[in-house]
Amino acid sequence: MSTSMLRSTTALRTALRTAAPQATKAFSTTAPTRALATLPDLAYDYGALEPAISGRIMELHHTKHHQTYVTNYNTIQSQVTDALSTGDTAAAIALQPALTFHGGGNLNHTLFFENLAPKNQGGGQPPSGPLAKSIETHYGSFEKMKTQFVAALAGIQGSGWAWLVQDNETGALGIRQYANQDPVVGKFTPLMGIDAWEHAYYLQYENRKA
């Protein structure tokens, strides 16, 4: 987990504020018109994170994988809306796993790409301010947090994500694993996520996941 790619704490907050209203609007099925999700543009070139992440991986990850989640989410959202409009509650419920998978895939990837930045756009520095102090309080140091984060990622069986989250009730930080594309919602706010799916690293790092 390279610190050279992490955005500043301010940028992380901005990403969360930007993503949250979109997610709320996109998941609403009671509005008279349906808002389509779109593939967010990156704030940097595909090759801007090299050598940590290759430009080819970034391009495929963004234009193929993320785009697929956006496309499928829009399709499933339409099917849910149609089912609810006709009172077919059973059909709407049956679509919920697919809605979570593709909607979560869109939300997770949006946060993931917005968490990254080249050095000339604020990357290259570890967290500072209140976040840095909270990490030190909970983990002892940023390096110790990274060690636990990598261990959590290595422990994911199959595909999924590891997230640094904040408990909305206590303010405590934690590292949590999420299977597949399950998004961080409810009790926790996502601060930083790392994609453990093979498409996020395999072309460059092959089987060397850690």
Automatic annotation (TrEMBL):
Record field: catalytic activity: 2 superoxide + 2 H(+) = H2O2 + O2
Enzyme Commission numbers on file: 1.15.1.1
Residue stretches making up the Manganese/iron superoxide dismutase C-terminal domain: 127-210
InterPro entries: Fe/Mn_Superoxide_Dismutase, Mn/Fe_SOD, Mn/Fe_SOD_BS, Mn/Fe_SOD_C, Mn/Fe_SOD_N, Mn/Fe_SOD_N_sf, SOD_C_sf
Enzyme class, spelled out: oxidoreductase
GO CC terms: mitochondrion
Molecular function, one GO term: superoxide dismutase activity
Keyword Metal-binding (UniProt): yes
Keywords per UniProt: Antioxidant, Metal-binding, Oxidoreductase
Manganese/iron superoxide dismutase N-terminal domain span: 38-117
Transmembrane domains' residue ranges: none
Binding site for Mn(2+): H61, H109, D195, H199
Family per record: Belongs to the iron/manganese superoxide dismutase family.
Function: Destroys radicals which are normally produced within the cells and which are toxic to biological systems.
Protein name as it appears in the record: Superoxide dismutase
Species of provenance: Friedmanniomyces endolithicus
Gene that produces this protein: SOD2_3
